């Protein structure tokens, strides 16, 4: 049994000396004549020739394990009904990797039965390749033997995720991917497959002169122990965005699909399990801002639009109260009846206010009272507006 892996570039140790030393130019000439060195750069350790791997090497999760299996008849007799079976034993299952389950009729002396097996590694830990051979001798005796080859599957990447819940039902996902192998990786693809309730937008590119370029540069190599952050924005689909109760309880976001290449193009792929976030707690009533200006004039009225959503499972009868603060003053009638609001339904509310103080001011002082339960919900620090003098703005 021999593992099939890509070859590696030949490395040699350069031996040189100064011309006034005893060997003179002998060492330099030997390096120039060596076919494994790079012409014009003989002192580099890395050569142009390829060498076959001398040991098993490392196998990482997500890569394809390939092995060459050869059964050779060392005797001087013909054997019959040869059956070669290759199984891969993991900590949780046993997989049959043999390409064919049919027996070979006969095997003459000094002849071989060859087979190549492939398996995409999907588990970490100890793996045992079990090769079993059964055959019948010329005397009709049935013979059987097995060989075991043990190897470890290592973890290639360390993936950490962070979630940020926005007020507009958007969810921002930051994925930190670290290369924990000993060789650089070429990150071919890192994408997020969202759950059925969300649409995803990748925030890992910038538009330069009409072209979309990766924020990580043209060559997305990840050196050993380096970490890279990928950012995604998930927005609820229209049919789910209107149902506040549905989006409120959604914890499953999606899964990451990561594809990379190492050394001479060896491909690896990992797909995470379903990523889950802590669902934001909106309470019984959620108030969010739909529109608000960035900059307003001092002591001049400006309009905002609020969205009030009933996140509970009962109908509410709401009353709106507006309380002035030191800098923000509401325009309109306080104690207004908003009427009944059914579960998972929303209403839009246009409000007018003005600021008597310059600078960055916080919009606060809204109160919603449910007349059924006599319960009041307070909303302060809803948003911020920049208040400037009208002369400065002009």
UniProtKB/TrEMBL annotation:
Residue ranges occupied by any Trafficking protein particle complex subunit 13 middle domain in the UniProt entry: 157-280
Gene Ontology CC entries for this record: TRAPPIII protein complex
Ranges where the Trafficking protein particle complex subunit 13 N-terminal domain occurs: 1-153
The protein's name: Trafficking protein particle complex subunit 13
Domain spans labelled Trafficking protein particle complex subunit 13 C-terminal: 293-387
Gene name in the database record: Trappc13
Pfam family, one: TRAPPC13_C
Organism: Urocynchramus pylzowi
Source taxon at top rank: Eukaryota
Family in the record: Belongs to the TRAPPC13 family.
SUBUNIT field: Part of the multisubunit TRAPP (transport protein particle) complex.
């Amino acid at each position: 049994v021999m593992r099939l892996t890509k070859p590696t570039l030949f490395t040699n140790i350069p031996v040189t000396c100064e011309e006034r030393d005893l060997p003179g130019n002998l060492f330099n000439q030997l390096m120039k004549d060596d076919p494994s060195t790079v012409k014009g750069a003989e002192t580099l350790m890395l050569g142009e020739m390829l060498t076959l791997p001398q040991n098993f090497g490392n196998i990482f999760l997500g890569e394809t394990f390939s092995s060459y299996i050869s059964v050779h008849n060392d005797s001087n007799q013909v054997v019959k009904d040869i059956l070669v079976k290759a199984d891969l034993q993991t900590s949780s299952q046993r997989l049959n990797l043999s390409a064919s389950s049919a027996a070979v009729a006969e095997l003459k002396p000094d002849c071989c039965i060859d087979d190549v097996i492939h398996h995409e590694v999907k588990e970490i830990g100890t793996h045992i390749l079990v090769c079993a051979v059964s055959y019948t001798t010329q005397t009709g005796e049935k013979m059987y033997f097995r060989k075991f080859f043990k190897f470890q599957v290592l973890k290639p990447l360390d993936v950490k995720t962070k979630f940020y819940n926005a007020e507009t039902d958007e969810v921002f996902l930051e994925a930190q991917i670290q290369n924990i192998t000993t060789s650089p990786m070429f990150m071919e693809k890192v994408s997020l497959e969202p759950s059925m309730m969300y649409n995803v937008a990748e925030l890992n590119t910038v538009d330069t002169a009409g072209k979309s370029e990766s924020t990580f540069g043209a060559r997305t190599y990840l050196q050993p122990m380096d970490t890279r952050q990928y950012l995604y924005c998930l927005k609820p689909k229209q049919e789910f965005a209107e149902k506040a109760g549905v989006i409120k309880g959604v914890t499953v976001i999606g899964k990451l699909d990561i594809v990379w290449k190492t050394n001479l193009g060896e491909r690896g792929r990992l797909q995470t399990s379903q990523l889950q976030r802590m669902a934001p707690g909106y309470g019984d009533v959620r108030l969010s801002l739909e529109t608000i200006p960035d900059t307003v004039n001092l002591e001049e009225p400006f309009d905002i639009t609020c969205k009030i959503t009933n996140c509970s499972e009962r109908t509410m009868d709401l009353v709106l109260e507006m309380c002035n603060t030191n800098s923000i003053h509401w325009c309109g009638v306080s104690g207004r009846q908003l009427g009944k609001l059914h579960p998972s339904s929303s209403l839009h509310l246009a409000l007018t206010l003005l600021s008597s103080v310059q600078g960055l001011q916080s919009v606060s002082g809204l109160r919603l009272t449910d007349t059924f339960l006599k319960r009041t919900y307070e909303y302060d620090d809803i948003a911020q507006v920049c208040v400037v003098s009208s002369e400065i703005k002009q």
